[in-house]
Automatic annotation (TrEMBL):
Superkingdom classification of source: Bacteria
Name the record gives this protein: Uncharacterized protein
Lineage: Bacteria, Pseudomonadati, Bacteroidota, Flavobacteriia, Flavobacteriales
Organism: Cellulophaga baltica
């Protein structure tokens, strides 16, 4: 299975680029860390979100046939670091932050686009 073909087919890089461009106001970002509030916001999107306090990130896991998909979010000081992990039969197929995945597919991505930032809880 070539995960890069799948990522290209779903326009992963262009979708993530659009998020980065739409949410890039560093000066007006919402500062601080309110883990309980962020978890409440994420649970409105999907009740299965959880917080891993040891690693300080939010996670959402799905299982489909032999696959396990994990979305990880580090949310801190107005920045969002999204990660994607895809595991198939205990074999890690993909595991990286969105910006590193995008860089692998399109060299120069990380030089041109920053991590998404949020100004309000609603924007998060």
């Amino acid at each position: 299975m070539d995960i890069n073909l799948i990522l290209n087919k779903i326009n992963f890089v262009s979708r993530y680029k659009e998020i980065c461009l739409d949410h890039n106001d560093y000066e007006n970002r919402l500062r601080g860390r309110n883990t309980k509030r962020y978890l409440a916001i994420l649970k409105k999107l999907d009740e299965n979100f959880s917080y891993v306090s040891k690693d300080k990130f939010f996670t959402l896991k799905y299982e489909y046939e032999a696959f396990e998909l994990n979305l990880g979010l580090v949310i801190n000081d107005g920045l969002v670091e999204p990660s994607l992990y895809v595991i198939r039969n205990e074999d890690w197929i993909l595991y990286n932050r969105f910006d590193f995945i995008s860089e692998k597919l399109h060299t120069g991505f990380r030089e041109n686009f920053n991590l998404p930032k949020y100004k309000t809880e609603a924007e998060l």
